[in-house]
């Protein structure tokens, strides 16, 4: 969604110039507000945003995965995306890995990353999660689940275990 690209142009056309920063780049919090809606205010338009963004993202991912496959047919290419199931794109991948954590940790981590209060983070996380398939459903669809509720070391160990299964035999 960078200036000069078709997705950027369409997002700005549909969501308005008020989602832009003074330098013309997209202000992601303003776009999130427009896409996810506000309590008692703006209605959610996340599906509209997804319809603009997902086709371009999928085309880019496909090209990237083809290039990786040409370089090394045994390569493991990982695509990180929160909305794979919502976009009905899971069938494009050989395996689905879901990374999850406790809901309160999600709030705390978002607050820290965005430099906002936990109250503001809780409202934003709740709003965003309402537009997603619940973790329980994602877990049912997953081939692997990484529980990111513990330490970084614990998460790294789970990643190593998944990688050991995915890596082709030497």
Q: Give the total of beta strands.
A: 2
Structural class: mainly alpha
Strand content: under 5%
User: What is the CATH architecture assignment of the largest domain?
Assistant: 3-Layer(aba) Sandwich
Q: Could you say how many structural domains there are in total?
A: 2
Strand order of the largest sheet: 1-2
CATH superfamily of the largest domain: P-loop containing nucleotide triphosphate hydrolases
CATH topology of the largest domain: Rossmann fold
Question: What is the radius of gyration computed over CA atoms, rounded to a whole number of angstroms?
Answer: 18 Å
Distance between the termini: 40 Å
Q: Which overall shape is indicated by the principal axes computed on the Cα atoms?
A: globular
Number of helices: 7
Written description of the protein model:
- This protein has 170 residues and is mainly α.
- It folds into 2 domains: 1-77, no CATH class; 79-170, Rossmann fold, CATH 3.40.50.
- It is 54% helix and 5% strand.
- It is built from 7 helices and 2 strands, in the order αααβαααβα.
- The protein has helices at 6-15, 28-36, 46-71, 103-114, 118-130, 135-141, 152-166, and strands spanning 97-100, 144-147.
- A two-stranded parallel sheet has the order 1-2.
- The longest helix has 26 residues, at 46-71.
- It is globular, with a radius of gyration of 18 Å.
- It starts with 5 loop residues before the first helix and ends with a helix.
- The model has no long low-confidence stretch (mean pLDDT 91).
Question: Key features?
Answer:
single chain; 170 residues; mainly alpha; Rossmann fold; 2 domains; two-stranded parallel ribbon; globular
